Amino acid sequence: MSSWLDYTINGLIVGNVYALVAVGLALIFGVSRLINFAQGSIYLVGAYIGWVAVVQLHTPLPLTIIFVAAVAALVGLIIERFGLRPLQNSVRIAPLLATIGISFVLDQLVMLTFSPNPRALPSQLPDVRFQVGGGTIGPLDLLIAGVGISSALLLFVFLRYTKLGWAVRAASQDRDAAMQMGVDVNRVNQTVFGIAAALGGVSGLLVGMYYNQIDTAMSLQATLKGVVAEVVGGAGNVPGAVVGSLLLGLVESYGVAVFGTSYRNLFAFLLLVVVLVLRPNGLFASARQAPPEPLTGTFIAPSRPVRIPRWGLAVAVALFGILPLLPVSFYVLQTLINAWLLGMLALSLTLVAGTIGQVSLGHAALLAIGAYTSALLSLTLSVPVGLAIIAGGLMSAALGTLLISPSFRLRGHYVSIATLAIGEIVSLVILNWESVTRGPIGISGIPPLSLFGYDLISPASVYWFAFAVMVVLALLQARLLGSHLGRSFRAIRDDDIAARAYGISLNRYKSLAFIFGGFAAGVSGGIAAHLYSYINHETFNTQQSILALTVVILGGLGNVVGAIVGAVALVGLPEIFRIAAEYRILIYGIVLLLLVRFRPQGLLGTI
Amino acid sequence: MAEATEPLLSLRGLTRRFGGLTAVDNIDLDLAKGGLVSIIGPNGAGKTTLFNLVTGLDRPDAGTVNFEGQDITGLSPERLAARGIARTFQLGRVFGNLSVMDNVLIGAHTRLRAVKPAVPVIGPLLELGLALLRPASVKAEEERLREEVEAILARFGERLLPRIDQPAYSLSYANRRRVEIARALALKPRLLLLDEPTAGMNPSETAEMQALVAELKAGGLTILLIEHKLEMVMRLSDRVIVMDEGQKIAEGPGEEVRGDPKVIEAYLGHGLPGGAEQESAA
User: Fold this and answer.
1) Are residues A235 and A363 in the same domain?
2) Is the pLDDT score of A37 beyond 80?
3) What local confidence, expressed as pLDDT, does residue B34 receive?
4) How many contacts does A have with B, using Cβ atoms within 8 A?
5) Which of A388, B41, B131, B245 fits a 20 to 30 Å CA distance from A323?
6) A402 to each of A395, A408, A512, how far by Cα in Å?
7) How far does the CA of residue B102 sit from the closest CA of chain A (Å)?
8) Which residue would you say has higher pLDDT here, A124 or B67?
């Protein structure tokens, strides 16, 4: 009985921490209609600034908190001023992508400065526990609760009784009307980002102290949890975000109590998917509220695609086809094999995110499904590798489409959140379903690639295999785009309301896009599994999803040739310039930011 | 009233509330096959909401919509399109990145047969396969529709044909409206709803549009029209319905409605959104 009280207290405390992140997200969403994917990175920065303060500067606790809040707020102001304000008049997808890019840059900067190894962040409070009823509570718990409650009160007073607070509320209700009444929206945005960042930073500090440890993986988790809490409470609803956070904390805590620690995140993401599907406007919205995204306007930048003549493409394919016959190093072939695998993933994502406009942030999950299916079939049932890879593609198409289908009714940023969560769910299921996936141990000894009984061992044969599969997939996709399906997919992307009014069923066509795209991604994952010979639940992670998205945007959304050019560029250029591995993600983040700012249509243009 | 034939479209007590505001308040409407009824009224009177209720983009809180003798209240827009209801949008919702040809081909989506076999469960997979394989029947269907689209575009003279391969976002405002109407015609509608087809058009473009709508009517098409330009409304309509604050305040032949004191008050009392046209029409 007593432990239940402990789990409740623990859930509420953790919920308080989530609330600090989620309130910031809700404030930003209210004013900018933007889900700030960089919020977790600010939280990470807060934790490490706190570490510097506590361990190196030996500041007392109150000063530590103020210091962390101030530095985090400054980071928030910089993000708003240089990352987002220039994008005010661009397409709606741009700020979302920019916050993803910013988050990568910040995380990598922290990692490069402090190294990726975990650090101990000592709590500056005495380690005593008080008996409360049947459970116990410590001073840090009280501090977290105190910071949570007092921030909520301060925020309430600010929003209700100060002029700037009124401006924030006015801007979140009707931005244009507020501007006409003389509200300086830039100043409101700055204020909101400053507050959100300060709260996020302090939250990172408190969590670090609570778990006594900080590491760079905290960032994505915090963003995800904050987004879950915010969406559960209703996007843009500040009190809703607090309630959503507490609810999330409790659900997680009880889930851990019943099933164990490795299920913590699974419950968070399942809660998110359930809320998104049943009440996309949050638990507290009335059932028939207007949709959260505006009904008009395109999500994707208009552009004229660069047309490459067919003979040019044929020459390029021929050149890359004979490459292994030329005196090139093993290293070049290896790099290009990686490019072809990424190219297949990019083909899949450019169809889903570009052609039909569902910006998926969990695309690596499709790789994982294909990889595990193919590896397990060939290992346990001795299915020939070629067939196993095709089966992996089919499984990815079927399972991926089934998993994503609840989010077909969502639009814009909500699709990205849902796909991110579904990607995490797949990874967590792989981790926990040990009887099939072998859990955290992973699968080793996967047989090498083979075709009609002949093992493909030499680099040249692997190269040809991957290249040929990619070219076939690209040709099929080009044929698809030229059919009535390509037209219907693009119509859904440009204006789903008008598309429905002309008889295009969103469920049917989004399913078809995910089936086709899921197959390509699953095949890529299957080939990768046989190439690596070992996979586990972390082989295909969110970083790969974001890398694929960067490739797709670099090439031009929906652009088949662009996806392949983008993959070659992003895999090849760092190799050519011999950029050390730890800087690559940083470079990808910067590339994404620059693209969004200066060439949102990508190199070859949106199709 | 002459009840000789059953009306093609019939609304009874149609109501839609948004919070405290009743955007459409207990509207009755009958539209005979081949007829043209216009809905006029000040901005915010609920005209477009009424269109949304008829085309399935919004659901009524009360009342029914009957089409060809069947209750279609609350059906999805996709199913209504398949039944032959086509509409244009007030703000001009073309598919910006699609060419003029593709925009209009989308209009013919509900008429695809060869590539969309009516097979349950595996129908979508067959559709994917047929789109990739493209057997002769699919090619022929696509070819036939493309020719048809060119014929539809030819109705707009030289406005759209020379721009057939250009993306819709590059078109002028008036041309986007024309693309929308072409798209609606490609559906081969049994009922056409036009939401301010001449908004943003100059007098000569308006005259052209008016001639086109007259031609469609003469061809037997049943049309529900929202329009601010009263001269066009008077020329084309069999009957005019005046809405204000969600309610029907007058209904009848154009000339009769025009002299109705309630109608004049509705317009004058609302800062004359249609006043300028009223004068030019006089």
Assistant:
1) no
2) yes
3) 94
4) 105
5) A388
6) 10, 10, 11
7) 7
8) B67
pLDDT tier for residue A259 given thresholds of 50, 70 and 90: confident
Amino acid at A28: I
Same domain, A346 and A231: no
pLDDT tens digits, residue range B99-115? Answer: 999 999 999 999 999 89
For residue range A200-222, what is the model confidence (pLDDT) as tens digits? 999 999 989 888 889 888 888 88
Q: Which of A558, A556, A496, A412 is nearest to A96 (CA)?
A: A412
Compute the nearest-CA separation of A558 from chain B (Å). 11
Could you tell me the residue range of the domain that residue A115 belongs to? 17-243
Among A502, A508, A511, the residue with its CB nearest the CB of B107 is: A502
Residues 164-203 of B with CB under 8 A from A: 167, 169, 183, 187
> Residue B225's beta-bridge partner residues?
B38, B194
Residue A283 CA to residue A281 CA, distance in Å, equals: 7
The strand ranges marked E within A5-64 are: none
Mutation to test the A interface, candidates B95, B125, B181, most A Cβ within 10 Å = B95
Residue count (chain A): 607
Beta-bridge partners for B85: B191
Query: Within this chain, do residues A221 and A359 fall inside the same structural domain, yes or no?
Result: no
Among candidate residues A243, A266, A293, the one where a domain is terminated: A243
Going by their DSSP bridges, the two strands B222-226 and B247-252 should be labelled as unpaired
Secondary structure letter of residue A433 according to DSSP: -
Q: By CA distance, what is A558's nearest residue in B?
A: B97
B146, pLDDT greater than 60: yes
Starting at the earlier edge strand, list the strands of the sheet with B9-18.
Answer: B21-31, B9-18, B62-67, B70-71
pLDDT for the residue numbered B31: 95
Would the CB atoms of A488 and B55 count as touching at under 8 Å?
A: no
pLDDT in tens, A537-573: 889 988 899 899 999 999 999 999 999 999 999 998 8
Residue pointed to by tokens 């693009």: A490
Whether residue A217 lies inside any domain: the answer is yes
pLDDT for res A294: 36
Query: Do B222 and B33 form a contact (C-beta atoms < 8 A)?
Result: yes
Question: Which residue, of A193, A222, A243, is where some domain finishes?
Answer: A243
Question: Which residues on chain B are in Cβ contact (under 8 Å) with A484?
Answer: 105, 109, 112, 115, 131, 142
CA distance B216 to chain A (A): 19
> Do A173 and A50 fall within a single domain?
yes
Residues of B in contact with A508 (CB under 8 A): 124
* Chain A nearest CA to B2, separation (Å): 32
- Ramachandran assignment for B179, one of left (phi > 0), alpha (psi -120 to 50 degrees), beta (any other): alpha
Structural domain includes residue A347: yes
Band (pLDDT 50/70/90 cuts) for residue A575 is confident
**Domain-located, residue A111:** yes
Query: Distance, in angstroms, between B263 CA and closest chain A CA?
Result: 31
SS3 of residue A594 by DSSP: helix
What pLDDT sits at residue A145?
Answer: 86
**Contact with chain A for residue B146, Cβ under 8 A:** no
pLDDT of residue B73: 95
- Answer whether A398 touches B (CB < 8 Å): no
Does residue A294 form part of some domain? Answer: no
Strands A450-451 and A213-214: unpaired
What is the share, in percent, of chain A residues with pLDDT greater than 90?
Answer: 46
Give per-residue pLDDT as tens, A166-196: 888 888 777 778 888 888 888 888 988 999 9
User: H or E element: which one contains A326?
Assistant: none
Query: Do A377 and A502 belong together in one domain?
Result: yes
Q: With a CB-CB cutoff of 8 Å, which residues 99-118 of chain B face chain A?
A: 102, 105-107, 109-110, 112, 115
Token output for A143? 């501090």
How many domains are there within chain A? 2
E strand segments, B93-221: 191-195
